[in-house]
Known about the structure:
By secondary structure, the protein is mainly alpha-helical. The protein has two domains: 64 residues, no CATH class; 492 residues, Amino acid/polyamine transporter I (Up-down Bundle), CATH 1.20.1740. The protein is 67% helix and 3% strand. It has 20 helices and five strands. The strands form two sheets. It has a three-stranded antiparallel β-sheet, with no helix packed on it. The chain has a two-stranded antiparallel sheet with strand order 4-5. Strand 2 and strand 3 form a beta hairpin. This is Betaine/carnitine transporter, BCCT family.
Amino acid sequence: MTFPLSRAPSRPALEGCVPARAKTKTAFISADINQAGTTPTQEDESLTYVTKDGEAVQPGDAPPPESVIQTDYETGQDNIEGQVGPFDYSVHNPVFLISALCVIAFVAFTLAFPALATQIFSALFSGATKGFDWFFIGAADIFVILCLVLVVSPFGKIRLGGALAKPDFGYVSWFSMLFAAGMGIGLMFYGVSEPLSHFSSAAGGVAAAADGVRTDWSPLGAAATEAEAVRIGMAATIFHWALHPWAIYAVVGLSLALFAYNKGLPLTIRSVFYPIFGERVWGWPGHIIDILAVFATLFGLATSLGLGAAQANAGFNKLFGMPINATWQIVIIIGITAITLFSVVRGLEAGVKRMSEINMVLAFGLLMFVLLAGPTMLLLTEMGQSLVAYVQYLPALSNPVGRDDVNFMQGWTSFYWAWWISWSPFVGMFIARVSRGRTVREFLICVLLIPSLVCVAWMSIFGGQAINQLLNDGYVAARDADLPLQLFAMLDALPLTGITSMVAIVLVIVFFVTSSDSGSLVIDTITSGGKTDAPTLQRVFWCSFSAVIAVVLLLSAGGLSALQSMVISTGLPFTVLLLIMCVAIWKGLASEPR
């Protein structure tokens, strides 16, 4: 037996949970529950408890009463609720309204003044990457250090959701969703091109202008030999895809899970800042935090959709002769969005979970094919060497100050860190949604270390295959191809190119569908005041909105460069919030019973 939404206690999770048979809407506190003799740990099989978002849970799944934060705020209390035709809505005032109106104004401005918009986006990109490169890199280093410290600390034993909480998903489904949401299209887009680019830059050596400022894009310094250029190129690639990006996601995911499942606060970004702002977090400081999270997520999704459309367009051109232009990319965006909407309507269990599992099977199959169809032992050997090179060059690549490889540092690393940070609200919240029941140590190992190793394997095999084709076979097509075509050019040199190219296109589409579905789920959660059961129509709205942003920027303001500029501009302020999150995580874990 569970409550209908309108009769559920507003804040049961703050007190551990309230028995569903309690019909009165009472603001229980943990002491009241203990005196009533119905604690969440009591072995009463006849009771079903209701969490703050209306989920029915067993007593052992509830957070311990002594760890919850007592506050008068009720989940969804600021929401505007109503009905449009047959559709219900429940949106947070003012987060939903301000976010939606600002995005609409942005789209209108970009369409009305495309030239001015292009200039503004270019200035934003240049100012952020050149003026704050040290800030992005230094902040990412802090996130990695914090995660590694927590893994080996006593805090690692704390379980998200309470000592008796059980995981909602098995390891295979859980990891599939983590990986598909976290990396997405980027692995397909940059898996061949980035290792090739860094190798070529390292092999090209150092060049400087008359004022002594370096003009080359080589990571760190010049490579003495071709073999060393391969090592530096692969180390730089792994640096952008291993520990640092996943540490960014882990910080957001862990903080959200901790304050939602252990502290009983709504599953929204502002809840993490309760130790910093106190009750003020339910006012304008919290509104601003959530609005920034919505902006970051929307533009991160739009950038990924633009990358996916460009690569899918290139693949369809190769297989079917589809022209490569903005018109066809818009058609692809509309098609991918339609598939995403179907997944959105089906929900988390039947939509994202199933698509993620399909994605993992296809990705693993393509990875194994490239490994076995090429020089297998050479690729495996170079993978080990690349991992060693990554460890060797990690301190230098992580150094935020005093470097002279400014183009690489600003054009690659700063952009990447801003991109990952812009994705972190939605990836982090999605990770939190599917990670209840895991210990902090288990969470961090699976979110931080295992995906990093998968990215090492992916970049080493795909990038290593392309570099091997260039150096040992004299095959230059992948190196000389446009960026979206480089993956398909590499596959051309292997057997069954038609089949593998089609699989690659399907992967690009499915990667985006899972990311977009997850992202719209998260934006909807934020803009509905932390409710996880908001009407599906709202997720449809945000999913469609991200597609509109991608189309407008591709058409009116410089294409992918405009998308990248918006990612940088939203990633910068959110980096400050992530640093504050680190303090909140430590305070939250320190107050947990151990």
